[in-house]
Amino acid sequence: MAETEFPTGTLMKGKRGLIMGVANKNSIAWGIAQQLHAQGAELAFSYQDEALEKRVRPLVESLGDEPFMVTADVSDDASMDACFKTLEDKWGKLDFLVHAIAFAGKDELQGSFTHNTTRLGFQRAMDISAFSFVDAAKRASALMPSKEDGGGAMVSLTYLGSERVVPNYNVMGVAKAALEASTRYIARDLGPLGIRVNAISAGPMRTLAMAGISGGRTLMKTGKDWSMLKEDTTMEGVAGSALYLLSDLGKSCTGEILHVDAGFHAVAVPDIED
Q: In the predicted model, what is the mean pLDDT of residues 14-26?
């Protein structure tokens, strides 16, 4: 993926947030992190294990600030306790949360959803891809300012396979549907506290997650050919949307699933010439 130039400014100056889910330089979470940093945000990054830390640390160091990285295995309560205790001890408060974590077994991301989904695979996909946001939101909200002091904001990442059947997306589509429903319920609960909670439904992009889905390249081509803009989903578009939702520009917006996919989601049947 080509290097992206993100608009600089001060929209996030004085705000601190946690980015969960950076896997490599092509991750949507990394694009969002770069855009937030370019607008003055101070960032912390969570990682699951040493292997991921080795991949992510050079990216974090490239931002030029003192790296703030913390271990967080979202399937382990003790690890999550330690992660948010570290955040509290260092910062005291948290202004925003970016959740970009999802997982499903590769064997379950191909062929028949009905025949290939196992009980363990279903539980694991729901735990890591959906419940982890509920858990992180609960912990993060406890560190966010009061409504009178500005509140906070959260963003999770989803995909159209939550709403419509997408070949090979299978159990991940079901997990993303649960994530979107969770986003609305969390938004309802945290709204009175001044905390806004939204999700971005990004179109197909060349990420590690897309590479794990059988037929991912076809999804990319179809997404471009059938979209209203006749173009790929861009990192600038997704990261810019996250900036809007997490900054003060996004006031009054909560419980929303924002589609950033060049208009693909709104197309029922493509033009005959397409």
A: 96
The reported pLDDT for the residue numbered 1 is 43
For residue 74, is pLDDT > 90? yes
**244 is an active site residue:** no
Cα distance between residue 176 and residue 172, in whole Å: 6
β partners of residue 99: 20, 156
pLDDT tens for each residue of 209-243? 655 555 556 676 778 888 999 999 999 999 999 99
Q: Kindly name the residue from 47, 159, 185, 244 that is annotated as catalytic.
A: 159
| List 47, 169, 185, 244, catalytic entry | 169
Q: What is the pLDDT of residue 271?
A: 81
Query: Which pTM does this prediction carry?
Result: 0.94
Sign of torsion over alpha carbons 210, 211, 215, 220: positive
Annotation says 159 is catalytic: yes
Helix 132-141 crosses helix 77-91 at what angle (to 10 degrees)?
A: 30
